[in-house]
User: Fold these one by one.
Assistant:
Number 1:
Amino acid sequence: MSRQDSDASVGGPNGEQLVEPGDAFQVLGNDVRTGILETLLERTDGDATSRATFSELFAASDVETSAGFAYHLDQLVGPYVRKDERDENGSDGGYELTYAGVRAARDIATGAYTRRVDHPPVDLDDACPFCEREALEARSTDNVVTVACAGCDRTLLDLGLPPAGLEAHGDAFPDALDRYHRDRLARMRDGICPDCAGSVSARLVTPSADVADELPAELTDHVQAELSCDGCGTTVRCPVALTLLEQPAVVSFYHDHGRDVRERPIWNVGPEWAETVLSEEPLALRVVVELEGDVLALYVTDELTVVDVQRSDGMDLQVDHTESPGSASASGGA
Ligand SMILES: [Zn+2]
Ligand SMILES: [Zn+2]
């Protein structure tokens, strides 16, 4: 059975569960079969899957008899490998990876299920935003990168990075983490999940009690952005400022001051950012960034929509905490 067999009705998607997850993974429980997926992946060029013949796949394997090899290949046909019956040259037909086959083969090739990467701490160029210590540290443990301060023991972030990525970048893995997750965040901000392409909901949240215990006192009531996929559950919680870095007004504000906002790492967007809660129910924020006495203010709703932007050159824009709740409803586009 293949995707083409499903009888898609007009006007909407028509999903079909072909097999139970346990059965699908059981098929992969053999090194000859994972080897076949790897061989087919190596022949895949860009998005187009390339075919390989039975004899090519057999030759690339360590199996001694073609009958034994055929048994393993047959187990993959359906969920992971598609057999192309068209016989262009009068020789044996070709095999190619299905969508699931490409996904499984990439996870195998990048070590997602099989490799654990621990990296000793490396010093970052950025100082701790909470204490006097000059350099934060990044390390990886079991494919999860932690950025923390050895001075005050605070953890600034904990984020996964694929094992192959961790190994590819050596001591530069914090920079790779920064760019990788910045890109993922931008996609989530765009409403598309980077893991499953599902729909992402955005909202402002206050830290839950257990998280608040870990935060420094001045941040216990700190509002955060939460981006969450309705399909696979991928969820990111981060400072609201981090979700505003791609806003055209923010990019141009930094640019006009001779700075590149992309140089701000995700573990510390910089001391120039400040937030004011304008309304508790629903939550609404004014987020202000100040560079060389110039101020940019962004008004953010509980769904993380920027409803207004104000910019002042010089300090004529009020940035203290005296503005009354409700002023975030000012009209205007971002
Ligand atoms: Zn510190
Ligand atoms: Zn998802």
Note: Residues 173-189 form the longest helix (17 residues).
Number 2:
Amino acid sequence: MGAGELGGERGIRVLVVGASVAGPAVAHWLGRWGAAVTVVERAPELRPGGQAVDARGVAKDVIGRMGLDAVVRAACTDTAGAYTVDAEGKVLETFAAEDDGGDGFIAEIEILRGDLSQVLYDATRDGIEYIFGDWIAELTQDADGVDVTFASGDRRRFELVIGADGLHSSLRAMVFGPHEQFLHHLGHVLAFYSVPNEFGLDRWLLEYQEPGRSALLRPIQDATRAMAMFYFAAADFDVDHRDIGAQKRLLRERVAGLGWLAPDILAHLDHTPDFYLDQVAQVVMDRWSDGRVVLLGDAAFSSSPMSGQGTGLALVGAYVLAGELAAAGWDPDAGFARYEARMRSMVEANQEIGRLNARTREIPGPDAEPAPDFTGDWFGELLVRAINGVELPDYTGVPESGAPVTR
Ligand SMILES: Cc1cc2nc3c(=O)[nH]c(=O)nc-3n(C[C@H](O)[C@H](O)[C@H](O)COP(=O)(O)OP(=O)(O)OC[C@H]3O[C@@H](n4cnc5c(N)ncnc54)[C@H](O)[C@@H]3O)c2cc1C
């Protein structure tokens, strides 16, 4: 019997919005615990692109519990480490992948975001209904369920709706309020796209920095290509996150004159299949649920790429949210409350790290606060909370018993 059929028998229908990382991950666990799951993704197909994202600490445990350890490791970038270089390419600093027990700057599990999304989708597509090229146009909820009208005109009813639709979540705007209320721009912009590997990259990532901007090249599994990244400081950001043309113009303008290999990387901008640019921002909300609607991943608690933990939080949050809902017999009040209680501390630690890292990139003005001292004990403790700050309950047995697990 497929997971969806089991959920169908129980009558728990869950709509998940967004099929990147958080969406397919929570769909996996909901399906495993017996819900009938539909995932709706606005893009016409799974979105490619993005730099490597990392799984550290408890996020690695979650991947193991999903049974995906081997397949995720097989898709990893196999990056040996990172060098920072000067304009002539001379090495300034070295960070090896095995530093800090594999949980450091270059994590032991580093996978391109698009590849991770594909792995999660492949692992769930059989038991889960995926709808591409559609999105929620209207939503109303009552005590027992949520009525959804899709942009395609389709109308359906679900018991629960989970928003995993990222930093600019439309579901968040629809249910909780306008973006400005929750989105905190950290003063930086990042752009990623793949380029031909004409730079002789092997297993080492190269980064070149100037005040307020930088360029980076990362080796990927396909040795004929490399993933490029540009970073620049920007006090504000008002480019539409769906207007690729405007984003490319902004990038060209802001990194003009950048040294090292930047002009050669920029020469490929018009021909890349997977351009992605976005502001570095966090989402801070004092609650992640409203009635039968709950948010997950970047939509609820983006910690920004500056924390290096957005994907880890999405994976761990997916495990905890689905597990707590099932353990609460699918009662949204109890399940959502326990999900928040378990996740808050880890989320806040990662948001703190994201803000600290963003500060280190700022060009110091005359009144600038002193740079944080990352060698202090306080930072070690913060890192532990950020990487391992959630105890993962063992939710197995939930679908058979239908009763809350004892902890
Ligand atoms: C193309 C892309 C590239 C990225 N590259 C990087 C990177 O290089 N480094 C990094 O640190 N982080 C990157 N991120 C963000 C990273 O994926 C997240 O921080 C983290 O993995 C948590 O993911 P998420 O699933 O919560 O959100 P996201 O990964 O942002 O996914 C949200 C998904 O929801 C979909 N969606 C949006 N609106 C709707 C809607 N109204 N209806 C239905 N679906 C909708 C989007 O198309 C997307 O597939 C990228 C995200 C995307 C989408």
Note: Residues 172 and 178 are 8 Å apart (CA to CA).
